[in-house]
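=== RUN LOG ===
request id: a7f3
mode: sequence -> structure
chains: 1
length: 456
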Amino acid sequence: MTSKKSLNFFQIMTMNFGFFGVQFSFGLQQSNLSAIYKYLGANESELPMLWLAGPVTGLVVQPIIGAISDNTWSPTFGRRKPFFLIGAVIASIALILMPYSNSLWMAASLLWILDAANNIALEPYRAFISDKLPEKQYSLGFLTQSFFTGLGTTMANFTPAILVSFGVFALSDKMESGIPLTTLWAFLVGAIASTLTILITVFTTSEYPPTQEEIIKIKKSKKAGVISNTVKEIVIAFKEMPSTMKQLFPVMFFPWYAMFCYWQYLTSALSLSLFDTLDQSTVSFNKAQLLTGNINGTYNIICFSIAFLLLPFAKKFGPNKLHFFSLCLGGIGLIGLPTLSENSILFSIPINDGITISNIYLISFSLGITWASMMSMPYQILANSIPSNKTGIYMGIFNMFIVVPMIIQIFSMQFFVYDYLLGKNPISVIQLAGIFLIIGGIFSLLIKTSDQSKIK
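=== RESULT ===
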């Protein structure tokens, strides 16, 4: 068996640099896709179905690509790097074409391609850590990926605002389709970031060749059929799922349903709440789209700034209670959206003539803590409940706890909730998201971690 050498900090940064590009792409989607759909003529009630690509491709592509990359080896290209590069190239093409969409079907089709490509690049990156690093450096490797996740998403959210702030474009500068030029250039920057950062990883990081035993296993797996073996293992894992993991389903369901509501409807909710319009042809709607990016970027900054600060609270109060508090905080922030405005000053930063922060950013501050908890506490609870020799497959199944609520949200919002339950009001959608965050927090208090003592 090949002995893995410890890497220095710079080497770990470069091997994970491609994560920045992938998350930049995801960040562009979160803040701009609903607005792009609106510019192309979509109604608010149609938005959920147009977001279907993300959860479906995540549900299907990630486990398949993970299994295939496990059983891939090329002396020239390696095991994981071919998937990084293929995903990045396809994603870059989709990012370049997206702002040039002249119809809803074109934009929606490109989103399916973009999400599939991002998942092709993303899934092997998790395994890349265990492939390349010795066990003592696993934590640093995954923390580096978390850092690039936050940085990539933040930069994607703020790029349009930066272009406006520096006078490169005005809010009123648009393409014929109505899509702002700031959106076009943000996607072009994303395309460059997606490919360039992956290329840095590909050309600076080598992969260990498989051992003779692994080569034999790869050949056997190809003969037996990788997909059929994977499906069989997943079915067995479902049957043997620890009870603590089962209890985590509602804890994941309600917050992820809520976050998909938030990403889909925040721009429309801000436009209606702050400017009393849902007309995508107005400058006010453009301002709401820009503000969406700023709010999302800010909550990502807060998330990764305070993530490590949550650890002592988790140790003192337990991950369950901390998660309850964090989800409730975000829920209260979203429920209070109609009471927030751009004109009410929260505080001022003493730089130059002073930078004022309005109370609309209370959403960012509360949701930043919520997001930090969602990215860590459920996984901490999960890690204590599953057998160590099945961590990979149960982590894969846990991804279903995320995408299944998204798929349910899409169909329920599309055909019932938005029109009939919420009266076609995007503000009500955001408030429903807040309520669901609080419900998820309540379920976290009900988790009993009795599985831990039973694991052998």
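=== NOTES ===
The two ends are 26 Å apart (CA to CA).
Residues 196 and 202 are 10 Å apart (CA to CA).
=== END ===
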